[in-house]
Amino acid sequence: MVRRNYIFDTVKSVFKKYGYQPIETPAMENSETLMGKYGEEGDRLIFKILNSGEFLGKVSADLLEGGQSQIANRQSSIANQISEKALRYDLTVPFARYVVQHRNEITFPFKRYQVQPVWRADRPQKGRYREFYQCDIDVIGSDSLLNEVEMVQVVDEVFSKLNVPVTVKINNRKLLAAIAEVIGAPDAFVDITVALDKLDKIGEEKVCNELRERGISDASIEKLLPLMRFQGNTAEKLEFLKTYLGSNETGQKGIAEVSEVLGTAQQLISDRTVLELDLTLARGLNYYTGAIFEVRSNIDGTLSSSISGGGRYDDLTGIFGMPDVSGVGISFGADRIYDVLQEANLFPEFTSDSTQVFFVNFGEKEAAYCLGLCKQLREAGINTELYPDSAKMKKQMTYANNNSIPFVAMVGTQEMEAGKIGLKNMVTGEQSSVTVSELISIVRK
User: Fold this and answer.
1) Phi, psi at 260, each rounded to 5°
2) For residues 412 and 3, what is the distance between their CA atoms, to the nearest angstrom?
């Protein structure tokens, strides 16, 4: 938790600098709020909650008739009748619901941050968890691309503070929609994006097979191959797109948007952050309509899996009765960031978050004396504890060592008479005799 809070505190400090305000939403939402917002694969990963009481009593009798296989075929309809609520899958859809619910109480554009857990019925493995924390920011009620630029700036500043070099991959769903039109499969836009998003994970051949399984013709797949295979820098990719998409109106708008975001953001970020146009980046969530982002750590030239991602959504609030309100947001995956920091040994020493000074307990009289010293140190802002029992010295020193406490204070009869404290630096092994004020000064340094 000390390490996790380091991530939370770092992220929040940057969010606040850019004017984002904190909110929270419930862990549980109505199922109808969540279902249908994340695509077919996302819907399958939503944790549903059984209704209270006699939930089977609400199920239509005809749905429970027949054998096991027949009932299994009707499980979706049964689930809708026995489960009206679910655990939130992400923080963005609940945020959209929140905005509509409080539309008369907030000022647009509305900038919020949110740090809370989400749940997905996934198979647990490295980088994929059933419960994990997201740290989100969103701006809603503005179409300006300056918001996208700001998202890139926030990413750059967060990971600079965490000492993690990153690559920010950027694309635009308008470009993907135009690609679907150019290859002659406009109605299969969602299927194409879902498959393309897996290119770096499963490779070209398997992506093509998945496209065929989803009903995309070989002729359309053939037209898509140059895009999947194109290599080059951002400028070369933009030139490729201009030719590949031709006069397609949606495509030209996408090129203009992504060019503006990349060009402006590049002037405002540090050298540690690499901006890259990724033509196959799709992001699986159906509600994205414009710019999309994916962030990966880039330590020693090795890219991690996604540790942050987001994008522009033009009408997410429309599903709750408030149409034509555009927003853009990005989410930081705290647990994946934790894994990156842990593996690269990038967590700092957290001396200020745990005990800094440990007092050895020599007995009842000495302990009573040390309680006053502990009070003085705590009032000076130093985390201090006194061992509760007058146990053997070896046991107490082992306790201090195992808890990585940097300073051990020893006060016996002689120290009490002299008004001094025996102090041992557990890192260097150095021992000295100091006053309370001197001890405070040493620890603060």
Assistant:
1) -65, -45
2) 36
